[in-house]
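Annual report, structural modelling task.

Input specification for the adenosine-5'-triphosphate complex:
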Amino acid sequence: MTTHGDFLLEAEGVHAWYGSSHVLHGIDLRISRGQTVGLLGRNGMGKSTLIRTLLGHVPQRDGHITFFGHDCSRAKPHQVARMGVAYVPEGRGVFPNLTVRENLLMAARPGRDGRCDWPYERVLERFPRLTERLTNLGNQLSGGEQQMLSIGRALMTHPDLIILDEATEGLAPLIVTEIWNVITDIKESGIATLIVDRDFRRVLSHSDQALVLQKGLVELAGPAAEVAESPDLTRLLGV
Ligand SMILES: Nc1ncnc2c1ncn2[C@@H]1O[C@H](COP(=O)(O)OP(=O)(O)OP(=O)(O)O)[C@@H](O)[C@H]1O
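The model returned the following structure:
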């Protein structure tokens, strides 16, 4: 596989299985530095599996995956994380028995090139609600606060790429809007994002590139504005 220096992530011919169930059938995906990529598709089409495969969480996989030109096709999740990839999982992944402060501080580490542009103070400034809740435990937070904390934790690892899987799921409209504002800020600070969200219009309006999965294959891909205009989009999303 040829690697091009400007790509942060290159995935080519990615397959994944759960036992005998073949879920991804050869997916290609490239993400450049600072780019926002939207990943769309109906329920069960393989979005979370693709993310989990890229992150090294699905052991039965095949294909080529590189981060910054380093082969991560067989990498373990902690090795992928060290490449500068942060994951905000569906269900949020905050530590329920640690305080907000502890959750944030234990995530903190400088970026791959020593970058430290999202220190604790800046994260608290961006999420004032967390500042008010610093001594509360993770499990005492509302869903929206947990989501902010999860994104705050991701920022404190100074990643080059943040992967957000259903970050707005089940949250009130005002909080959802706030999360999208945060996503805009993340993009403006030069961090690439891969976003899965049910609100395909918002995904497309926030993304540079988009791809739509259908049964573990990429059925539609390109600049988000073109994907948004595609006559196939509503059929593929079942809307
Ligand atoms: N841990 C697992 N074990 C077995 N099969 C799984 C597992 N996780 C997902 N699947 C199956 O893999 C297929 C793809 O699921 P996946 O969760 O990747 O889809 P998705 O596009 O993210 O959909 P959703 O929005 O519902 O999460 C589905 O048929 C699902 O039932």
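Residues 7-231 form a domain with the Rossmann fold fold (CATH 3.40.50.300).
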